[in-house]
Amino acid sequence: MAVQASREIVIEASPEVIMEALADVSTLTAWSPVHKRMEVLDRYDDGRPHHVRATIKIFGMVDKEILEYHWGPDWVVWDAAATFQQHGQHVEYTLTREGLDKTRVRFDITVEPSGPIPEFIVKRASNIVLGTATEGLRERVMGTESARRPT
Q1: How far apart are the C-alpha atoms of 42 and 14, rounded to whole Å?
Q2: Which InterPro entries does the annotation name (predicted)?
Q3: CATH architecture of the domain with residue range 3-148
Q4: Domain boundaries, the chain
């Protein structure tokens, strides 16, 4: 049975800055505790990742995934094929500008585990993933924004 989870936050940055942070998958291991290794296998003509090999670890379970990314002007989607831990995964980030430097970010994830998982583990894992995908992204983006501001 598929597990679905979503979360929205507002980040004090433009959609372009947030999309830039999402496209920089090589830094994901620095702001996401569940991502242990990211390797871009190929890129689109605009330089954004197309296929990425990822090593994920949550609650001691390690999974190696091949992610296929698709990009729009204010969204990114990636899918993972079947692995040892899951039959499939679908992730979406959707960005909506709410002001000059303010963006609503919606994160949606659907995972179909390869076997039954106790509900309490699903809830804990969901909270970790949702927190990383939203608050972790905010910290990454705001760190980027701070680094760009003149002192």
Answers
A1: 27
A2: Polyketide_cyclase/dehydratase, START-like_dom_sf
A3: 2-Layer Sandwich (3.30)
A4: 3-148
